[in-house]
Amino acid sequence: MSDDEEPVDVRPQLQEECKPKCPMQSANYDACKERIKGNSEGDCEAWFFDLMQCVDNCVSHKIFHGTK
Length: 68
Hints:
Number of strands: 0
Order of helices and strands: HHH
Low-confidence stretches: none
Number of helices: 3
Strand content: under 5%
Helix content: 55-70%
């Protein structure tokens, strides 16, 4: 990469690739979203964080694979 090139953030792409590897967390989050749809109370924050923790674990292995 030359000095005038902007670095590319590959994390969003890797997150999309890793989401299918977290089916249980994704299903729980989607079920929560359906339960509270149209309801003004409640949130799915805990399920979202569970999903993101799983995805980030997968992403971190891919990002740091080439580093020492």
